[in-house]
Structures are given as C-alpha cells and as structure tokens.
Amino acid sequence: MLEVTSFSLSGTPLLSRTVVERAEELRSDEDALRAGWADAKLLKVDRRGQVPVADGALVFHPAADLGPAPVSGAVFLGVRDDRHVWAVRVLAQTGEVADLRRVGDRLDDADADLMVSAVALLNWHDQAGFSAVDGSASEPTMSGWSRISSATGHEEFPRTDPAVICLVHDGGDQVLLARQPVWPERRFSVLAGFVEAGESLESCVVREIREEVGVDVRDIRYLGSQPWPFPRSLMLGFAAVADPAQSLEFRDGEIGEARWFTRDEVRAALEVGDWASADEVPLLLPGSISIARGMLEGWAQG
Question: What keywords is this UniProt entry annotated with (predicted)?
C-alpha cells in the first residue's frame, strides 16, 4: 500500500485570512476613537449573522450616522485604509444581505477578516450580559473587547470554544468520512468535536474519534486552524491514521453513518462542487468556507 501520510491544507482557510490591522492600542483610547469615528465605517450585523452585501463585497455605512461619538454596543474591529471600522448589532436589515456561509467564499481578504471578527464578537456580547463570576449585569468596555461586572469590576474577555476537526485516513488511499443523523444522505464530512476541560488537543482527537466511530487513531498531526463564529468556535485541524479493518461503532449518537472512501471518490466529489450541489452523485462534501474542504483537497492531491 502506498503510504501518503504527509499532506497539508490546500490553502489558507477562507475564514483565516487575517489582514486588517486590529489596532489593539486604540481600544482604550477614547480620544482617538472619538476622533476616528467622524469618518469611520460601520458594518451592520443582524441576529442571524447577516450583513449588507453588493457585488460580492460588504456594504459599510458611515458610523457618524449614529451620532458624534462611538455608540454603546458598537465594537471596534480595527483600521482599514487609514479609517476606523466598527460593527453594531441591528434588529433588521434592508437590501441584499448574506451570512458568512453564503458569501464567505466571495469576500476579499479584508472583508472576510472584518466579518468574522464582527460576527464572533457580537455573538459573544449577546450571551455575556451577566458576569460568569458574580451573576451581576456587565457592561462592554475596551470598545467591545471586554465586559466589566457592574458589581465587582471583574473583567471578562470574548470566549472562544476550541474544537478539533480531524481527517482520518489509512496512510494510503482511503479516508474515513461521516454524516450526522440530521444530514441528508450522501452529505459527508470529516470528524470533529469540542475540546473538554483539562484535555490536550491530541487527546481530544483520540477521544472524539473513538466516541463517534469507535476507531483508534495514531500519528496525529496538526494541519492548521480556522475561526468558526457559529457562534464562537475555533476549529483546529488535524490528520490521523486509522486501520480500515477496525469495526465502526457509533457510540455517542452523533453519527448516523460513516464509511471509508477512496481518493478517486473524493476527487470526483470535489469536482462536483459541495453540499449545495443538486447533482445526483454518491458523495457530497463541505463547501470552501469550511477548513474541512481544504483538508480534503490537500489529502486528495496526495
């Protein structure tokens, strides 16, 4: 059997394109933020994570339309083309809107960077209105990059939930793919799961693969990472080797079906498109917005 254990992501994950200057030094500089607000750009994000778009690009609004200074609830995203960029939650949008799953693969690097940060930060604020330490109401500070307890002054920072996503292969020409019970038939992806407290990333890979499909893995190797703000995860990509002869067991109820696929089958599926394809093909794979796509493309290229 041909050993193909060394491969990499096919490219930088689309949601990992970090190019905008975050300008952390400005987050607590109220004078600089107020001065920059006059010609700052504002991204409006609704509760479904949708933003205004036109011709495959984000549509920004003048921040000054909201008032002469940064408004409560707005989050500072950084500096782009010498202008401050902010985001704010809105209840409703007008015109064409889209979320990251729909438009993420069409955005340029800066737009993608800004939208991922905006969605992740605003999602955190939606769920962090009360201190996790003392239960009191908290208020945004540091231009949206932390929250302060109104009772004790305890400061809390945006939460990110780490999750591993692992391409399991046999060291040769087969890869193990699975689908959740709620997914349509033929829609498969690589395996993933959240990191538990007190657990290393490598230990999580071993545990999650064993829990989900009953397979033991070895030769665990890191590939790359991608923010996944749905609502606030960080996907950490790995590859690992397993024995196709080992029986598959769906132990935790999260997997409805899992199968070993050949490299030719994966290549054919990648050529068809992604989950959105209407073609009657035996295998549909994740779209380009997911790090899973880059992992599968890298493996398929051999």
Answer: Hydrolase, Magnesium, Manganese, Metal-binding, NAD
Question: β-strand 61-62 against 161-169: which pairing, if any?
Answer: unpaired
E strand map for the chain: 41-45, 51-54, 57-58, 61-62, 75-80, 83-89, 97-98, 138-141, 146-149, 155-156, 161-169, 174-179, 191-194, 217-228, 233-242, 257-262
Q: Are residues 81 and 182 in the same domain?
A: no
- Entry pTM: 0.93
The token pair that represents 130 in the structure block: 């009360």
First to last CA, the chain: 14
- Count structural domains, the chain: 2
Those residues whose C-beta lies under 8 Å from the C-beta of residue 97, and which sit 6 or more positions away, are: 46, 50, 51, 52, 53
Residue 210: domain span: 160-301
Which of the 8 DSSP states describes residue 71?
Answer: P
165 and 291 inside one domain? yes
Q: Which of 182, 131, 184, 187 is nearest to 157 (CA)?
A: 131
What pLDDT is attached to residue 302? 78
